[in-house]
Prior knowledge:
Elements: E1 2-5, H1 15-29, E2 34-37, E3 47-51, H2 57-66, E4 72-75, H3 78-81, H4 92-97, E5 100-103, H5 114-117, E6 120-122, E7 140-145, H6 156-161, E8 170-175, H7 181-193, E9 197-201, H8 205-214, E10 217-220, H9 229-237, E11 241-244, H10 247-253, E12 260-261, H11 266-278, H12 280-294, H13 300-313
Parallel strand pairs: 1-2, 1-3, 3-4, 4-5, 5-6, 7-8, 7-10, 8-9, 10-11, 11-12
Amino acid sequence: MILLVSPAPPxxxxxxxxxxxxxARILRELGHQVVTDxxxxxxxxxxxxxxxxxxxxxxxxxxxxxxxxxxxxxALTGTDLYPDLASxxxxxxxxxxxxxxxxxxxxxxxxxxxELRARATVIIQSVPSMARSAPRRDAFEVALLAHIRPVxxxxxxxxxxxxxxxxxxxxxxxxxxxxxxxxTECCRAESAANTRYDWLGELPRDAxxxxxxxxxxxxxxxxxxxxxxxxxxxxxxxxxxxxxxxPGSVGLLGEDYPGxxxxxxxxxxxxxxxxxxxxxxxxYAELTARCDRLRPMVDxxxxxxxxxxxxxxxxxxxPV
Length: 320
């Protein structure tokens, strides 16, 4: 039996919850029994999979004390890795307890020293392929799926829409829970005042994915990401991405991807939005083609195979 610990429960719409739910499903598909919780739960386990080094530290230490010989797989999130492990408060003892470290995109390895990198593997988050829906005819709709907290820089897209030409038909549809009171009030006020920005609040996952599937673009303005689920979701739906040029996105999309803007740069994002809207056969077509080529990267079979290989390497046997 495998214990899977995440700071967000699998029923949560938060990124860690979505990841935990998917990983639990993959592990069960591989034949393992899985217990999921937000903390250590006493029991007899063959392994621990812990998501978020800082927030799951107590669970890792409790598991190691109770199961000194069982392997621990520790997944590092964006708020573990960036700007660096020391400043984010990751306990070196927790890293030392891990038999394997998982990062969610290749650039995450750059945040690790040689000793940690030797125990690390990259597992890119997967999403089943989705068909694109008919886009809105009254607007050039751009999806923003981000819970409202500072690291996601949720107001940047709204700021960018105010810089667009008067004849632009760009509308940003923002889906996400209000997790920061001051920022949430800003988003609410902006949504009421800016006809090019529409904050819908938190939606059920299927409805949120539907917003992506019907949109012309997805925008990811985050200041830090470990390897955003929403990029995988956009790729699975064939929706091109505009992203801040942070390591967590560059690691997924590639250094030469044409759809970057500097983190915090509303002017740069506005320029990219305008180029995508106005140059459909050039810039927008290039973004679409590049994302189409990346789509196999988020195939669920690849993530499933990565977990199968990792657990076999750790000799975590499937119960008979």
